[in-house]
Amino acid sequence: MLNAKLIKALEKNGFFLEFPNYNSNEEMIAEIIKSDNSRILFSLPLLLMNAINYKRISLNLDKKQKREFNKAILISAEIYRREDIDNLLSFVIKKNKILGDYPKNEFKEYYSHFKDSRTNIDEKEKIIIKKQLKLRLNLDLNKSLKVLFSPAKIRIMNKIFNHHKLTNTELKYYYKSISNINKSVLNEDLRNYLKIIQIAKKSV
């Protein structure tokens, strides 16, 4: 079996391996518990937020694994209570008469990993939102540019924006056909005048 270190190293070099997906959340949870790896077990509170079929998972576990599963459910339920997260674990606990206790230090570890994971998710979402916002701004910018400039003028301005050297012909064209428009657009009096028109037209 390939180890995680080798897989990560291959991915950094652009080689990605295809792995089969789990058919259900229950199958993944059972696999995590069977792994008997504490680092992976800490991921369970992230998965137990979704509705689960307790009996389907339990049927794939031995007695020791089932105790570990029950403990993870009780810990997760307490984490959700503290974080005010809607879930169905209280129903699962009551229906299946899940009893037991867990060490405080173990709960703290689970809770710490849970909060770290949620922070990572939030950070990823922020990055996605920033990318979407940048894309939207670029689309708005391109739309505005097309109103004022021809494709040839936009191409030359993009070269300047990206610090690419202009040919002599492009440079002459810039000063002859683009520079004056840019100066007009940047003129503060003109911008204030257009703002007044934009506001006033609503009442006309």
Helix content: over 70%
Q: Write the H/E string, N to C.
A: HHHHHHHHHHH
What is the count of DSSP helices, taking H or I runs of 4+ residues?
Answer: 11
Strand content: under 5%
Per DSSP E runs of 2 or more residues, the count of β-strands stands at 0
**Structural class of the helices, strands and pairings?**
mainly alpha
The end-to-end distance, rounded to whole angstroms, is 74 Å
What is the 3D shape? elongated
Characterise the protein shown here.
By secondary structure, this protein is an all-alpha fold. The chain has two domains: 19-121, no CATH class; 150-204, no CATH class. It is built from eleven helices and no strands. It has helices at residues 4-12, 25-35, 38-41, 44-47, 54-58, 63-83, 89-95, 104-148, 151-161, 168-186, 188-200. The radius of gyration is 29 Å and the shape is elongated. It starts with a helix and ends with a helix. The mean pLDDT is 84.
Attribute tags:
mainly alpha, 2 domains, 11 helices, 73% helix, 0% strand, elongated
Give the structure's gist in a few sentences.
The chain has 204 residues and is mainly alpha-helical. 73% of the residues lie in helices and 0% in strands. It has two domains: 19-121, no CATH class; 150-204, no CATH class.
